[in-house]
Amino acid sequence: MIRRAIISLTFVLGAVSGLVPVAMAEGSGLVALKDRGRLLGWEAVGRLDVGGGYCTAVLIAPDLLLTAAHCLFDMEAKQRRDLSKMNFRAGLRDGKSIADVGILRGVAHAGYDPTGSGARGDQIRHDAALLQLKRPIPAQTAAPFALHSGRMTGERVSVVSYAKGRDNAPSWQKDCGVLGMAQGLIAMDCDVTFGASGAPVFAKEQGRARILTLVSAGVNSDDKKIAYGMELPGLVADLKAQLRAMPGGGNTGTLNAGAKRISLGAGGGGAMNRGSGGAKFVRAGGS
Hints:
This protein is mainly β. It has one domain (about 5-280): Beta Barrel (Thrombin, subunit H), CATH 2.40.10.10. The chain has helices spanning about 5-15, 35-40, 120-125, 235-245; strands at about 30, 45-50, 55-60, 65, 75, 80, 85-90, 100-110, 130-135, 155-165, 165-180, 185-190, 200-205, 210-215, 215-220, 225-230, 280. The strands form three sheets. Strands 1, 10, 11, 12, 13, 14, 15, 16 and 17 form a nine-stranded mixed β-sheet that branches. Strand 10 and strand 11 (about 165-180) form a beta hairpin.
C-alpha cells in the first residue's frame, strides 16, 4: 500500500523561502535518450521552449500538450508569456526534433495562482496547463500518452525530462518511488532540477506507461531528493473544459487518442530552466 507521507508532503510547503539552483546528482540512474533506438516510444515527450527558457511537456492527444502551469508565466516580469512565441519540440535530441510545432492556444488551470500569494500546496495541486498545437502531430510520428487512472497498485514510477545540463536530449530516470499521495499532492523520490517542470511521471497500468502526474517542484540535496506533482484526472478534465470554452477551442483532440504503447516491466520505471523564471526547486534547508 502506498505510504501516506504527510510529513514529506508538508516539507515542501515550508521549505520554499529560499529558491536556489540545484544540480543533477551523480548516480541518479538517468539514461540519456540520445540515439534513435533509445528514444523510440518516448517521442511524445518534448522540450517546450517558452522564450528565455524551457520546460518539459508531453502529448496527450495529437494536438494537446500537458505541462506545468507556471511555465506559462514569466515570474520576473509578472506577466503571462506570449503563447505565440512558444514552440514544442517533440523528441528533441542533439538539435533535431521529431516534430517542431507552435502553440495555438492554451490555458492554465483556473485554480493556479501565478502571483504565488496562495498556499504552496495549492500552487502545486493546480500547477497544470493544457496547450493546443497549431497543427496535430500524427500518432505515427509521436503517439500520445494516456493518463493514469490514479489508482496505484505499486510505488514505482519513472520520469522523462529535459533539464539544466541535459537540455539537448531527454533523460529517463527508469525507477523512482512514490513517497505519498494526499490531498491532491504526490511526493516522489525522483531526481529532478530546472527544466523538468511539466515533465511526465509514468506509472504502470495494465502493463502500459501512463501519465500519473507532472513535475511541479522539487527539493534536492545530498540526503534528500523529492519531486512534487499533482493528481491529474480532475485537473485535465477541467483544463479541457476551459480550452473548449475558448474561441475555436472545440476543435481539439480527444484525451486518449493514439495512447502510447510503451510497456513497463517490473521495476521499470524539470521546473523551468532558471533563465525563464518561475522555477520551484529548492535545496533542503536552503536560504
